[in-house]
Amino acid sequence: MDADELLARSLQQEENALAAAASARDDDVHAAFASRLRGGVETVSRHHDDLAKAVALSVVPLDRLDAEARALVTASRAAAAAAAAAAADASSPSPSPAAKEISHEDARLLRLLRWFKREFFRWCDAPPCDVCGASGPELVSCVGMTPPTANDLAHGASRVEAYACASATCDGAVTTRFPRYNDASKLLETRRGRCGEFANAFAQLCVALGYDTRWVIDWEDHVWCEVFSASQGRWLHCDACEDACDQPLLYEKGWGKKLSYAIAFGRGGVKDVTRRYVVDFDATVAARTR
Ligand SMILES: [Zn+2]
Question: Which residues belong to any copy of the Transglutaminase-like domain (predicted)?
Answer without folding.
Answer: 187-242
